[in-house]
Amino acid sequence: xxPAEKIIQHAGGVIGVSWLMIALPLLGAAILLxxxxxxxxxxxxxxxxxxxxxxxxAVLAFVELIGLPEAQRxxxxxxxxxxxxxxxxxxxxxxxxISFALLIxxxxxxxxxxxxxxxxxxxxxxxxxxxxxxxxxxMLLLVLADNYxxxxxxxxxxxxASYLLIGxxxxxxxxxxxxxxxxxxxxxxxxxxxxxxxxIWTTFGSVAYGPVFGAAGGADQGVLTVIGLxxxxxxxxxxxxxxxxxxxxxxxxxxxxxxxxxxxxxxVTAGVYLVxxxxxxxxxxxxxxxxxxxxxxxxxxxxxxxxxxxxxxxxGLAGSTMSxxxxxxxxxxxxxxxxxxxIAHLITHGFxxxxxxxxxxxxxxAMNDEVDMRKYGGLRKFLPVTFATFFIGxxxxxxxxxxxxxxxxxxxxxTAMHHSAILGWLAVVGAxxxxxxxxxxxxxxxxxxxxxxxDAHPHESPAVMTWPLIILSVGSIFLGGYxxxxxxxxxxxxxxxxxxxxxxxxxxxxxxxxxxxALVAVxxxxxxxxxxxxxxxxxxxxxxxxxxxxxxxxxxDAINESLFMRPGQWATRFAVFFDNRxxxxxxxxxxxxxGGTSGRLRRIQTGFARSYALSILFGAAVVAGALLLVGNL
Amino acid sequence: MTTHYLVLSALLFAIGAVGVLVRRxxxxxxxxxxxxxxxxxxxxxxxxxxxxxxxxxxxxFFVMVVAAAEVVVGLAxxxxxxxxxxxxxxxxxNLLKY
Amino acid sequence: xxxTITFWVLAVVSVSAALGxxxxxRAVYCALMLGVVxxxxxxxxxxxxxPFLAAVQIVVYTGAVMMLFLFVLMLVGVDSSDSLVETIKGxxxxxxxxxxxxxxxxxxxxxNAVLSPPAGLLGATQTAGGNVPALAQLIFTRHVFAFEVxxxxxxxxxxxxxxxxxxxxxxxxxxQRALARARFLTGxxxxxxxxxxxxxxxxxxxxxxxxxxxxxxxxxxxxxxxHDVEDERFPDDPKLAEAIKxxxxxxxK
Lengths: 633, 98, 253
Fold this sequence. Notes:
Order of helices and strands of chain B: HHH
Largest sheet of chain A: 3 strands, mixed
CATH topology of chain B: Helix Hairpins
Distance between the termini of chain A: 102 Å
Low-confidence stretches of chain A: 1-5
Shape of chain B: elongated
Largest interface: B-C, 68 and 85 residues
Number of helices of chain B: 3
Number of helices of chain A: 25
Mean pLDDT of chain A: 88
Structural class of chain B: mainly alpha
Strand order of the largest sheet of chain A: 1-2-3
Distance between the termini of chain B: 49 Å
Low-confidence stretches of chain B: none
Number of strands of chain B: 0
Structural class of chain A: mainly alpha
Largest sheet of chain B: none
Oligomer: heterotrimer
Order of helices and strands of chain A: EHHHEEHHHHHHHHHHHHHHHHHHHHHH
Mean pLDDT of chain B: 89
Radius of gyration of chain A: 31 Å
Radius of gyration of chain B: 16 Å
């Protein structure tokens, strides 16, 4: 591999003002949140405009970047001193960050536009757009910052936006709980990330990417492994990887555009970004890399298995998201050979998963917000545009030849196979399961007989919602091929993440590729038998032990509950008990003792002056006795 | 000889004190207090003689003055209490208690 | 020798009188006992070279203070005798224990003290020319401030006694006319018997007689009547005895 090029400080051109990408949506959020109800009428338009403006800046910066010679494609822009003597805030424009910026602003803008239609009946639409803008700003800060502290600020910012948007309909207890769950589970990961950054600071004396990666070679491997594992913990929390996966399925309580933007296309991929960005550290810590790949494989299988059992279309897609991010994580753990595939899959996944989620949103829009696929069926006649785009997304995700997913996922599988046969074959199995559950979803939704309630009147969504779908599905078709064939994307990313010694060549007829296709075909056929041809029961059958296992999210919540929540509850109860009985008991007991003693002692105050006089006389007698005693001594 | 006077004084004082403690009629209690004061005066006079110094007699003189004032005020209080409560018993005036 | 005899006689008298003061039920007897004690003490003062104090003791204590006591006794009710039942548990027992203990301790303390023969006051009084001039000299020179304060205290006490016993009149003082009207309206005896008009005695314990010769209940002395009933010693006159019984019954209601 080649060492990462030195960052060239640059303050001119569009790149020089690339901080506008962050500032514009932030300004939009500030206006919408501070402006209050005055902005209700045009708030959504401002949100879209800010997002689009940010997209324009990103495109111009991208154009300027690729106009430069390859060696100069790492541009830093110093902004201000954030923490004096420690963090100088700056923006880093390199192929990696600009790829993310394009994805975030591009897909983000489409979802903004879609949301105009989707949220048109919601009284709090302006607030929704404010949060979306806040999210875009934070996410861009996360990927554009040139140091770990800036990344952390963005990281927490997206966590906040995610919390606000999951709980957007906070009047629903389930949404409020889901938001809290997401926030709390993310705290675990964020804690790891924070500690990781502390260790980076103490090890390297800096948190900026340039100095840290430059000095990584001279650091102790054990320390690097610790840093890597801590960063991975952060990545697991944000990207819903095992063991911190449990929040993502519940996060589907948020509005569907949120699920598409935050919990499918962008925020949940922040973990992948972190691992790829910190590649210089991970490459020097093979143990940490191995753990990354294991986490990736476990998650891709777990997500896929969860996806097979969900009847809620959004939860099914959420399981799929987990699984796909598992693929990315697997690739990110494979070093420079995998980075390009990880990011390429991330981008194509951003397109087709956003496409699928928005399609699901369109279906829900048509079906009175019904999410149970068992109450769909035969919808392809009623929602032709949604069906067509959803189907394209479906083909892309299962890796249908020549569509986006085919290239990127195949790339990951082949790289993994090259690295370790076990990882590779597990990834292949995961792809097969993907074929099954995505087919199941399509068959249950669009094929078969109609099973919906009588009061549902399915209708196609308005143009403001279908056009983003169409644009996303076009991306889902062509983007993968464009990025992977001829290693375009790998060459492009090289200045940021380095390139492998030997460039891979894409084989259309490799063994793993054919095996994947075969397994996907088997999965799809099985799904056809079970859900396409056969009658789908409206009420979910009880199913076997394995079905329950998958439906209960592989007992993820149960494990969390028994391992953390119950002991925590016991500890809390004990603390409360100790506080009530121990501390308070001591204080109250003392008070009660004094009170009780006083209550008894005051009985001495009988009100009879003669009793008092008697005690005086006794006292006088005692004094006389004492004087006598002292005088005699 | 003076020892005898002092013992007598102590005896009268103790009898007066017991009287204060056992009697309930406020006026009698008052009389017992006067008895105690007189016992003290006897001791003072005896000490004056013992030491050949008139100060003891002077103090006894002032004790008498103060006792006279005390009797005036005390009896006035007793009369006032009796007027409202129709009782001269010190046990009846026991409202100030727990 | 003379002093020893005087002392022992007066000591016995004064201690007995003090015990009588504590033990007698009737407040009047108590007052008399106190008078005895005070007189004995006055003599003892005189014996101990304190003639001025002896005189003051008699004038102020047995004269003024005792009169005041008796006066208040009469005002409050001469008959108000203590009940012998002790209401506070253990008060009597512990009072006696404490008193005896105190007396014993004080006596021991005095007995223990090694006293030289008394110095006597001859030296102190000689220069001034007697006890009274010597005292006067001291009071008006060394103790003049205390003397002035004591006088202020006496004036304040006199004022306090007036304030304390003063009663605010809540209603208009009834005129003779109003009293007569009230009497006629109630339909009671229209004419009050003039005291002693038909009386055969002028003693306070003899009630007035009405024109028909019967006893006027209104003029029966309540206190005497009560004593009579308690002691069951009624006068020979059956009418008078009946009237006394009735008066006591009425009062007890």
